[in-house]
Specification:
The protein has one domain (19-212). 58% of the residues lie in helices and 15% in strands. The protein is built from six helices and seven strands, in the order ααβββββββαααα. Strands 3-2-6 form a three-stranded antiparallel beta sheet. Strands 1-7 form a two-stranded antiparallel sheet. β4 and β5 (125-126) form a beta hairpin. The longest helix is centred in the first third of the chain and has 58 residues, at 2-59. It is globular.
């Protein structure tokens, strides 16, 4: 009997360790998805910025060929650190990377007083930010990164001076347009990589033993599904749509259970 009880206690301990490990993995995956969504949004805003420049170039082709300066008005995207405004005490702090300038753990980051104790850290390094930086490069405070756009004006001359071919006497227009198109292609390539990472992370999240919060899943699936489809990944989109249907069903079940509990509580009180 003694050995049986010892064995039972050992099984309980291992079960708790397994549950703890799975919970931490879920937290890391959810943090990664939130991080990837903001990075995709940043790429989209950078693309919009380049498209505005491209359109201005096409409208001013003659000035470019004649080497005349002109102003280009654009909506420029930039990262900013802003105070976190949340009614919930669990969301009032975030772990962010000062090197990558990214939110590594934005939601439910209440455990631990410094970045080294944050759940997204593994072997001293972050599992979420682009550079997988050391915890010493992170801060945990009531601020996070957001991407904001502001109207600004840039001069064509400043762009031309960066392009040696554009300073030559021939093919100035082709040279500057090539640079813009090259930038656009790089943005699309990086965005595709981010979308693949998001798809893979969401899939991993759906397969772990502890199910993710269905409301969290729905929020991010609504963001990623149309973008994955736009990227031509129809198979990925269908898989994500199946996950969304499952998450929607879970939300309905949660609402029904809450309604039932409220009804039973009301009946119990009325009988007293």
């Amino acid at each position: 009997m003694k050995y049986f009880l010892q064995s039972l206690n050992e099984m309980k301990r291992r079960s708790l360790e397994l549950t703890s490990d799975v919970l931490i993995e879920r937290i890391r995956l959810e943090a990664s998805i939130s991080n990837l969504q903001l990075r995709v949004q940043e790429k989209e805003l950078k693309k919009a910025e380049k498209l505005q420049i491209q359109e201005a170039m096409m409208q001013n082709k003659e000035k470019i060929e004649d080497c005349k300066n002109f102003a280009i008005k654009i909506k420029k995207a930039a990262k900013e650190r802003v105070p976190i405004e949340s009614k919930s005490w669990k969301h009032r702090k975030a772990t962010t990377c000062t090197i990558c300038e990214e939110n590594c753990h934005e939601f439910d980051c209440w455990w631990g007083s410094d970045p080294s104790k944050c759940e997204v850290m593994k072997d001293g390094c972050c599992t979420v930010c682009s550079g997988k930086c050391h915890h010493s490069k992170h801060v945990k405070e009531n601020k996070k990164y957001v991407i904001r756009t502001s109207s600004t004006t840039i001069e064509y001359d400043s762009m031309r001076k960066k392009n040696k071919k554009a300073q030559e006497q021939t093919n100035r227009f082709s040279a500057v347009m090539y640079d813009v198109e090259k930038d656009l292609q790089e943005i699309e390539t990086h965005k595709s990589i981010l979308l693949f990472n998001a798809y893979r992370t969401i899939k991993n999240l759906s397969q772990i033993a502890l199910k993710p919060d269905s409301a969290f899943t729905l929020q991010h699936l609504d963001f990623f599904i149309p973008r994955v489809r736009e990227a031509g990944k129809e198979n990925w989109a269908r898989e994500l749509e199946e996950m969304r249907r499952n998450a929607e069903a879970e939300e309905v079940n949660k609402d029904a259970l809450s309604y039932l509990k409220a009804g039973l509580a009301k009946m119990f009180i009325s009988r007293k």
